[in-house]
Design a protein that fits this description.
Elements (H helix, E strand, L loop, with lengths): L1 H15 L6 H32 L7 E5 L3 H6 L8 E6 L2 H6 L7 E5 L12 E7 L10 H11 E9 L5 E2 L4 E2 L6 H7 L4 H6 L3 H10 L5 H7 L4 E7 L2 E8 L1
Parallel strand pairs: 1-2, 1-4, 2-3, 4-5
Antiparallel strand pairs: 5-9, 6-7, 8-9
Helix pairs in contact: 1-2
């Protein structure tokens, strides 16, 4: 979701001036997309392999994708290993973009917290790079809902312990006091390439709050929590139950 939100903000920045497309800003957005997508695809493919290892019956499971998209399943290499995925997203734009006619993927708008299905309706819940966008005071609510609607689950969220903030691709930004980090967003590769307005930069920074392992284990006390490593450092937390 992080990547999708970033790209959405880039497009918004490119179109907001005078309510007409700005070719220069679209070029910047395209450049950012070309730079970051190969890296994200690499990690998504690794996560796809891990999902298949942890859930070998994936092709027989009914799946909830919380806050996801069809392109996650395509880029992770999992699109050929699923039979039914219900994708719940708060963004009407994301749902519209993902309408590709593949009947295995059902795209649903919702409020972000209440999934309108019975208890244990899904065999598996998947949540990829979403939890850090949920307000901290409401994360337990999301986790409770995921546990309610799915028998098993797999959640990935970027680790606060990793020295590079992945949304802005800026070292140490997320380790600074929030008020300092907010003021420095304009210096990040994301802001420089996207040309997002100061308001969009501030809104995105305020939205993203990475999780430490302590918070992850508090939210998922009985789940399996393992690190996703990059150059020997913990890049993300992987949670399975």
């Amino acid at each position: 979701m992080a990547c999708k939100k970033s790209l959405g903000l880039l497009v918004q920045a490119a179109t907001c001036r005078f309510n007409r497309p700005n070719p220069g800003l679209f070029a910047m957005a395209s450049l950012w997309h070309r730079l970051i997508i190969p890296v994200l695809t690499h990690f998504r493919q690794k996560r796809g392999q891990l999902l298949l290892e942890r859930f070998p019956q994936l092709s027989e499971m009914s799946i909830l994708d919380y806050g996801g998209s069809v392109h996650f399943w395509v880029e992770s290499g999992l699109s050929d290993h699923v039979k039914a995925v219900d994708i719940y997203n708060i963004s009407e734009g994301e749902v519209r973009i993902d309408e590709r006619g593949d009947q295995r993927f059902k795209l649903c708008l919702f409020d972000g917290f209440n999934i309108p299905v019975p208890d244990q309706h899904f065999d598996l819940a998947v949540c990829n790079s979403v939890l850090e966008h949920v307000p901290p005071e409401r994360r337990a609510e999301v986790v409770k809902e995921l546990l309610r609607v799915a028998k098993r689950g797999h959640v990935q969220t970027p680790a606060q312990e990793f020295p590079v903030e992945p949304h802005f691709v800026m070292p140490l930004l997320h380790w600074l006091p929030r008020r300092w980090g907010r003021r420095l967003v304009f210096l990040t590769p994301w802001a420089l390439l996207s040309k997002a307005s100061p308001a969009l930069q501030a809104a995105y920074f305020d939205e993203v709050r990475l999780l430490k392992k302590a918070e992850v284990t508090q939210l998922f006390p009985t789940a399996r929590v393992s690190p996703e490593k990059f150059l020997g450092l913990t890049k993300s937390w992987l949670i399975s139950w």
